[in-house]
Amino acid sequence: MLEGSCLCGDISFKVNARPEGVSVCHCRQCRRQSGHLWASAYVARSDLSISGTVKWYEASETAKRGFCPRCGSSLFWAAHAEDTMSFALGALEEPTGLRLEKHIFVADKGDYYDIADGVPQKD
Question: Where is the CENP-V/GFA domain (predicted)?
């Protein structure tokens, strides 16, 4: 089981299944929301236990983003039509035992950095 929390500790969560889709998203929306990149993985919503009050932002017609209303930590992403939820890798307690599987939306990445870690990239 993995555990994580926001910066101030008001929100904590437990991941009760092996996460999938360990990735870094480079899309403009994720970069704006996080200040750089969004590193996440996902599990079925039933395998994610959240304690505390998450504030949700309807980021688009298809998805919402969850954050701590006190410290502003970006913690969750959920597509409306899916039964999974993504969580921020940076919020996890270590060791996680996870490794990046891919970079996504690299065609939208910022012009101020390069991706040079050898992990597969998807436009």
Answer: 2-114
**Tell me, which fold does domain 2-108 have in CATH?**
2.170.150
Is there a contact between 46 and 34 (Cβ–Cβ < 8 Å)?
no
Domain ranges of the chain: 2-108
- Span 52-75, pLDDT tens digits: 999 999 999 999 999 999 999 999
What is the C-alpha to C-alpha distance for residues 51 and 70, in angstroms, rounded to an integer? 14
Q: How many CB atoms lie within 10 A of CB 115?
A: 13
Structure tokens at 44: 């079925």
pTM of the model: 0.95
Spell out where 1-123 has E strands. Answer: 2-5, 12-15, 20-25, 38-44, 48-51, 55-58, 63-67, 74-79, 84-88, 102-104
H/E stretch holding 30 reads helix 28-34
